[in-house]
Design goal:
elongated, disordered N terminus, alpha/beta
């Protein structure tokens, strides 16, 4: 805050000096008129008076009462933007009043709430139209994952001599969310084998016990109970619709993201982990799987499916960041009793060693099928002993350095 205060004091001192200078010029021309007289003195006094009057009235140019709106061109209805995409911004500004303004300068700023070092400013200059309106647009730099907020837009104008600068601001606060990077996983060998191995008969799914949680709406089948009919959807569509309830034996997949700061070499490695988790959730959503999410800072989302649930998981990944004390093992021990037996638990973490071996052993005792996706770093060597240890436990493990390697690795290349 101190630099801003110092800057304001400096601007105030500069303005005071200019006021004194204008007063000195005016008094000089007045004394010249009084003591010298003549046409030259009259003309000089008139010109100086008009100029000072023009410069002084610029304070009421209307900039301080500026109004406007900000719109985003390439943002969807949820105010979300794809990863590493330039944000296209349009701003409409109206300056009330009638005093002429030669030009208008604007300064707009956008900052990442989760990473204060990511701050972008955009300066533009334009001329007002006949109705004192101005349209401006610009594109930001490609934005990484995070929640972004626009600060007040500053508006500046000067007189034609650049003697005084008048400033106003527009409170156009708006928030957008940039989604984590995802890659398309067309095929995942492990997920296919896991799903077929547990749910290989359609009849077993059809006759499994239903829960009380509604999973969607389906067409009416002869023999459905009256309590299963979805009357609202039947009235809207004109066709008989029945409620679809989630079944106990439906496959469930849980993605566990490690957010312990000491496990990551740098921020880029953590971003790779977040993108990997988002890509796996995208795969599960397209496959229609019941999937849940847990980050090791005790944020747990029970397994479900559907567009709203998938959006909720992605929005959590937008804001997730590393923390100092939140191990995967401790967090998972809190929630694995809530996980359905025989579920696939995918741990996205660069951590290796004895703690992870104990964790996968405990998962096996809880009748949970474990999988490990390791975030490798180019300076680190792949640990063959770690691979052998997990293979002996019957646990699948994959290693990637960047998220672009994920589709190829999951397609069959097990580490």
């Amino acid at each position: 805050m101190r630099p801003n205060v110092t800057g304001a004091k400096m601007r105030r001192r500069t303005a005071n000096k200019k006021v004194w200078m204008m007063g000195f010029i005016f008094m000089s021309s007045l004394f010249f008129l009084l003591f010298q007289g003549g046409k030259l003195a009259n003309m000089l006094f008139l010109i100086v008076t008009l100029l000072i009057l023009y410069i002084s009235l610029g304070k009421w140019s209307g900039v301080r009462a500026a109004k406007g709106t900000r719109t985003f061109v390439n943002v969807n209805e949820n105010d979300t933007l794809a990863h590493d995409t330039k944000l296209h911004v349009k701003v409409h500004i109206h300056i009330p009043g009638f005093w002429p303004i030669p030009y208008l300068m604007t300064k707009d700023g956008i900052r990442n709430l989760s990473n204060p070092s990511q701050f972008y400013t955009y300066d533009t200059t334009g001329v007002l139209g006949w109705n004192r309106n101005m349209e401006l647009e610009y594109k930001t730099a490609p934005l990484p994952r995070g929640v972004y907020v626009f600060d007040d837009m500053k508006c500046f104008t000067e007189d034609i001599f650049g003697f005084f600068q008048h400033e106003g601001s527009l409170s156009l606060h708006k928030q957008i969310k940039v989604l984590p990077k995802t890659v398309h996983v067309r095929k995942w060998t492990l997920a296919s084998l896991w799903s077929k191995g547990i749910y290989q008969h359609t009849a077993s799914i059809r006759h499994s016990k239903e829960t009380t949680q509604i999973d969607g709406v389906r067409d009416y089948v002869y023999g459905d109970k009256l309590s299963k009919i979805h009357w609202n959807m039947t009235a809207k569509t004109g066709n008989w619709k029945s409620k679809e309830f989630e079944r106990e034996s439906m496959p469930k997949m849980y993605v566990i993201l490690d957010v312990l700061q000491q496990n990551y070499v740098n921020d880029q490695q953590f971003e790779t982990a977040v993108s990997t988790a988002a890509s796996i959730l995208n795969y599960g959503h397209k496959q229609g799987l019941n999937q849940g999410l847990m980050t090791s800072n005790y944020h747990y989302f029970a397994a479900a499916r559907g567009e709203q649930h998938y959006t909720r998981l992605l929005h959590h990944l937008i804001e997730v960041h590393t923390q100092e004390q939140c191990s995967v093992r401790t967090s998972l021990e809190t929630y694995w009793k809530d996980m359905t037996k025989d579920s696939l638990v995918i741990i996205v973490s660069p951590q290796k060693g004895e703690d992870m071996v104990k964790l996968f052993t405990q998962l096996k005792m809880q009748r949970l099928f474990g999988c490990h996706i390791v975030m490798e770093h180019h300076e680190q060597k792949q640990d063959a002993e770690w691979r052998t240890t997990l293979e002996q436990m019957g646990t699948y493990s994959y290693a990637i350095e960047n998220v672009e390697q994920l589709p190829q690795v999951l397609g069959g290349a097990s580490i």
